[in-house]
Amino acid sequence: MSVAFSKNGRRLAVVWGDSLIDVWELTGEQPRHDETLRSGSSEFNFAVFGPDADGNRLLTTSFDGLAQLWDLSKRPAHPLVLRGPLGPVTFGSFSPNGKQIVTASADGRAELWWDLQNTRPVSAWLEGHTAAINAAMFSADGRWVLTLSDDGTARVWPAMPASPELIRRVKSGLRRCLSAAQRAEFGLTIEIYPAHETDIPVPDSDGNCQR
């Protein structure tokens, strides 16, 4: 069982250690039950609110290898599913500006996520630990990620990982165009569309994606 407060202190999420999370409103004299979130397939093990002033985004992790990003402003709330490893996802956190997420897993890998407004976010693995990662968090300036592992080590990673790793993830899991502005935001400073890669939509000569 664990709990999480929103940044504005107006919401509370209670993780019961099963497939349910109860969200409570704390705006009145007494807490008011707002919604029950259901994982549908496995037990939740962690929840954290985003840094947003409205407290509408909640990140949850579960034992089935999923992290889910919930928009609590919608009724009922439906999550954006961040499908990661085959094993349990043990922890998650937001970057200070809320534009990135990092998740940690029992298989010894962490995963960085960008473009969280899209139904298919960009992601990249942080690999190097030899045992389960128990925590992963951003530095206050958002430039670094710290991971803590059962292998007895803590590692510090750039929040924008090596381009070849990210390119591999983009090519294997993404089937949409990324504009020049998006590539710059995600740290993709080199070309990610080789000439032989024809199954990924590419931007035009001005770096824009066709609608």
Short description:
This protein is 8% helix and 39% strand.
Could you walk me through the main structural features you see in this protein, from its secondary elements to its overall organization?
This protein has 211 residues and is mostly beta strands. The protein has a single domain, classed as Methylamine Dehydrogenase, Chain H. 8% of the residues lie in helices and 39% in strands. The protein has helices spanning 163-173, 180-185; strands spanning 2-5, 11-15, 20-25, 32-38, 44-49, 57-62, 66-71, 79-83, 89-94, 101-105, 110-114, 122-126, 133-138, 144-149, 154-158. The strands form 4 sheets. The chain has a 4-stranded antiparallel sheet, with no helix packed on it. A hairpin with a 5-residue loop joins strand 1 and strand 2. It is globular. The N and C termini lie far apart (45 Å). Mean pLDDT is 84; it is low at 194-198.
Features:
211 residues, mainly beta, Methylamine Dehydrogenase, Chain H, 4-stranded antiparallel β-sheet, 15 strands, 8% helix
Order of helices and strands: EEEEEEEEEEEEEEEHH
Count up the helices: 2
CATH class division? Mainly Beta
CATH superfamily: YVTN repeat-like/Quinoprotein amine dehydrogenase
The termini sit apart by: 45 Å
Q: What is the CATH architecture assignment?
A: 7 Propeller
Helix share, percent: under 10%
- Total tally of structural domains: 1
From the spread of the alpha carbons, the general shape counts as globular
Number of strands: 15
CATH topology: Methylamine Dehydrogenase, Chain H
Low-confidence stretches: 194-198
Mean pLDDT: 84
| Rg on CA atoms, Å | 18 Å
The biggest beta sheet reads: 4 strands, antiparallel
Spatial order of strands in the largest sheet: 1-2-3-4
State the secondary-structure class: mainly beta
